[in-house]
Q: What sequence folds into this?
């Protein structure tokens, strides 16, 4: 009888201990703030607003936790997570010996990359490719508040370049307009998954320049994409030796760009978006700038055609990482596979059966539409290696391949 009583007593004590441990794990210290891990994200996270084109106010996320987050604890946990995520990373590929060599917080210099293109050219996909890298801080469309315009020079260029440079140095001071815009356009932040893991529970963190600056300095890799800035203006950024920036110019067939823009209501009121002659004038300007910059900085600029990325995503993405001196990781490989073999509906989805995407315009646009674009874009298409469709039969022909080899002359 005594043995049986002792047995039941031990079982009761064990069960009570388990319950106390589980209860305690739900209420850790006074932070009450628990961002979800990247592994819990699902497919809907990638059905995002393309290039910040939806300018309508969005509801702010609710904070399911009481109290204020412990900023120092968030920063410390992030430091630990970055180290764990990159514990097997070969830093010699990136030209350094250890993680701290790439951290601003430790006096290091991150690997910084800037994607330049225009609306509906595939930048969301390419930006997500780079954001799969562990330890990457993603500056998504920092020029959203400039609205639907192309920045080709003054009066916008000085402010735009100052914003870009400040962000790459993780200095978010004096960026009141950026944060004010983000308060009602949260897609400005939610593509930066590592920052958003905290902001989605305590939205004020995303509007805090001090927190964002400190948080940014914990990451060894920084990527950014912009669709409102023309290539020739990045000369100032490339001249900054400390910044040590690498630039990726993403080009797409103007017929595909214009067809894709038909899906977006944001485009029609803005001449920079719906007039093909302006798009193609920018393509010519980018071609000239690319030739000059490749001569000055042969290892700091890479040109990718969207069609090549879509048709050969694996090899093109690996070439991109090699150019940036980044090691491919398992998360990178998984992203490339899943996003190019699975098709998910939605004009902003980055899940596509890639080989079916680049020439969809051939089946959607009438020849009259195609001819109108071609008349405005002949010179740009010749420079970038896009063949003309001669008539409706030629357009519909399976033998018509819009791509031909090209070379940027320096």
A:
């Amino acid at each position: 009888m005594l043995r049986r009583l002792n047995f039941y007593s031990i079982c009761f004590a064990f069960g009570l201990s388990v319950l106390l441990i589980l209860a305690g794990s739900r209420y850790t210290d006074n932070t009450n703030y628990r961002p979800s891990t990247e592994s819990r994200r699902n497919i809907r996270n990638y059905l995002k607003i393309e290039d910040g084109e939806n300018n309508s106010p969005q509801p702010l996320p609710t904070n399911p936790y009481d109290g204020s987050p412990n900023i120092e604890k968030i920063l410390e946990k992030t430091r630990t997570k970055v180290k764990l995520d990159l514990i097997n990373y070969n830093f010699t590929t990136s030209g350094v010996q250890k993680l701290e060599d790439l951290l601003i917080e430790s006096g290091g210099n991150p690997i910084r990359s800037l994607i330049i293109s225009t609306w509906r050219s595939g930048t969301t996909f390419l930006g997500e490719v780079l954001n799969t890298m562990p330890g990457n801080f993603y500056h998504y469309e920092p020029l959203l508040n400039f609205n639907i315009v192309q920045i080709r020079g003054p009066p916008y260029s000085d402010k735009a370049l100052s914003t870009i440079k400040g962000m790459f140095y993780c200095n978010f001071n004096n960026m009141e307009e950026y944060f004010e815009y983000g308060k009602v356009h949260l897609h400005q932040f939610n593509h930066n998954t590592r920052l958003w893991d905290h902001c989605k529970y305590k939205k004020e963190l995303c509007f805090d320049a001090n927190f964002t600056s400190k948080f940014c300095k914990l990451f060894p890799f920084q990527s950014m994409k912009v669709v409102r800035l023309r290539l020739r203006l990045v000369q100032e950024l490339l001249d900054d030796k400390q910044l040590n920036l690498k630039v990726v110019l993403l080009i797409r067939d103007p017929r595909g760009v214009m067809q894709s823009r038909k899906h977006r209501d944001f485009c029609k009121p803005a001449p920079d978006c719906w007039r093909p002659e302006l798009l193609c004038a920018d393509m010519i300007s980018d071609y000239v700038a690319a030739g000059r910059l490749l001569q000055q900085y042969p290892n700091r600029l890479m040109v990718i055609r969207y069609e090549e990325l879509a048709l050969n995503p694996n090899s093109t993405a690996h070439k991109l990482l090699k150019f940036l001196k980044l090691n491919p990781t398992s998360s990178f490989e998984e992203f490339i596979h899943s996003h190019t073999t699975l098709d998910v509906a939605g004009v902003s989805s980055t899940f596509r059966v890639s080989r079916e995407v680049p020439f969809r315009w051939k089946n959607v646009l009438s020849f009259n539409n195609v001819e109108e674009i071609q008349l405005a874009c002949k010179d740009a298409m010749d420079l970038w290696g896009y063949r003309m469709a001669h008539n409706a039969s030629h357009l519909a022909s399976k033998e018509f391949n819009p791509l031909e080899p090209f070379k940027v002359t320096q």
Summary: The first strand starts at residue 111 and ends at 116. The radius of gyration is 24 Å. Residues 339 and 351 are 4 Å apart (CA to CA). Residues 1-5, 18-52, 54-66, 342-353 have pLDDT under 50 and may be disordered.
